[in-house]
Queue: 2 jobs
Job 1
Amino acid sequence: MDKSVLVVRDGGKALNETLEVFNKIIDSVNTVSLQMDNVAKAAEQQAAAVEEITASINEVNTLISGTAKDAIASAAASEEAAAAIDQISEQISMVNVAAESLNAETGKFSI
């Protein structure tokens, strides 16, 4: 009977060791599961951040497009203003020539 008691005792010890190993496996699985949840949450946060960055980039792109259009319109207005100034300068020159000619002609008359 001593032998059977030893066998039962060894079996119980082996069972306890097996249960300890299974408990360690369960702890490891729980740790991995928790880490996977943390990774999933971090991925969701990164996805939200990427969406915000994309929206900001689109907003900046819209502002740049508007600024470019405004710059083109401003350049066109500047060209038109320069052309108008050239025309005014030409008209002033013509008036000056006419005034000089009129002065010369009226200078011929004496009272």
Job 2
Amino acid sequence: MSTVKSHLTHIFRKLAVSNRTSMLNKLRNEVVFFFNKAILIL
């Protein structure tokens, strides 16, 4: 039982990390896009 629990915990941790990185990448892309638009307007 403990091995199954640790296995699930590991998977969830991995998912959380990948979700966080993808979220950060998305945010960074949006910020870059916004700045590019602002520069074009200026």
